[in-house]
């Protein structure tokens, strides 16, 4: 790690990535209002390319009720029940990184996959590390946390799988998006066999996952009285769009979720699971993928939506390359800027280091 003193270090290195290099620093840092975003889209990018709005969108309605704040995001630690496994150190590095951020984040959200095999011992190990955070934290489950005992240990340690909080004028939602219809009772699978199937990157017998009917009902109720100009930050383990369903890089009821959230001016949807930098924008929802603290998944063989920014994995011999944490700054106008805080800063493209407007 270059940040030996555990401070966040973002060196000003030249990183090779494609046409996004043409976007100047000002375009990423200087835009915080609707008018400025419109200028960027018209002036910097070719006009008429709607999908380019991915980086430029900000809250439609500036509200005066928001007190700016920062919170951190950690995800996909995949801890094993093995003493001094290297993922333990990377998880703890991320916790230390967050504790040393200035300004200190108000809270942390952990976006799923604390454990690797769903063992209570793995979840306990993760909880002990998360308990070292100097600020409150919330957790949502990933599939690796859940399918050994159907969430029993997870619920016992972390509470409700669907939750929401209001913070400084922003409504923050966390949901369990990894619920799969029963594929195990019919063939008589044991708990371990069920977990084993879910662990496969491409599990043909598992079927797609989502929040299911119960989750949709919960969400409808949760946002019923929230005003449309309230910024929403939505956490799910899986993306709210069909990125690559064969690897469950998708949420089966994402269209219904997007429908429920359609009334809001601005939704920032942050997900884990994909272990990589990826973006999308669908209507009022900016979607952003997060890197893990364990390993990077390969990019699936599909075209990425604009902006097609990927991790730079320059050094395959560096086991921390492409991993790390993130933090999100929410401004007074309700817009958010996501920053990647990688262990190895050269793994992250310049455009992402400077902050991605949501
Ligand atoms: Fe994961
Ligand atoms: Fe996952």
Write the topology of this structure.
Blueprint: H1 25-29, H2 34-43, E1 69-74, H3 86-99, E2 107-110, H4 120-130, E3 137-139, H5 143-146, H6 152-158, E4 163-167, E5 170-175, E6 179-180, H7 191-199, E7 209-210, H8 212-223, E8 232-236, H9 254-260, E9 267-271, E10 279-282, E11 285-289, E12 324-330, E13 336-342, H10 350-353, E14 356-357
Bound molecules: fe (ii) ion (2 copies).
One fe (ii) ion binds next to helix 5.
Question: What would you note in describing this structure?
Answer:
The chain has 358 residues and is of the alpha/beta class. It is 23% helix and 18% strand. The chain has 10 helices and 14 strands. A 6-stranded mixed sheet has the order 3-2-1-12-13-14. A hairpin with a 2-residue loop joins strand 4 and strand 5. Helix 4 packs parallel to helix 6. The longest helix is centred in the first third of the chain and has 14 residues. The chain is globular. The N terminus is likely disordered. The structure holds fe (ii) ion (2 copies). One fe (ii) ion binds next to loops.
Short note summarizing the structure:
The chain is an alpha/beta fold and 358 residues long.
The N- and C-terminal alpha carbons lie at a distance of: 28 Å
Question: Unreliable stretches, pLDDT < 50, 5 or more residues?
Answer: 1-63
**Rough outline:** globular
* Structure class: alpha/beta
Rg, rounded, reads 19 Å
* Strand ordering within the main sheet: 3-2-1-12-13-14
Bound molecules: fe (ii) ion
Main sheet: strands, sense, barrel: 6 strands, mixed
Q: In what range is the share of β-strand residues?
A: 15-25%
- How many beta-strand segments? 14
Helix count equals 10
Helix % is 10-25%
Succession of helices and strands: HHEHEHEHHEEEHEHEHEEEEEHE
Mean pLDDT: 83
